[in-house]
Design a protein that fits this description.
single chain, alpha/beta
Amino acid sequence: MEQQLKAFVLGGTGAVGKEIIKVLSETPQFQKVTLIGRRKIDLPSSEGYGKFEQEVIDFEKIPEFAHLFKGTN
């Protein structure tokens, strides 16, 4: 049985973050990916991006968003 993973990405708008998002969209082992940032970003509507969720947070108040990081790899 293939392991189903969850991940979160900080900084998805930078060059490295964009590449990580692309790779995660193409990796079937990741069933859920949460993008955490200051704002939402436009994602392609293609198949691999359906597993992405986006959360907008205030990085000055990270402890208030601790729940977003639980259960991720």
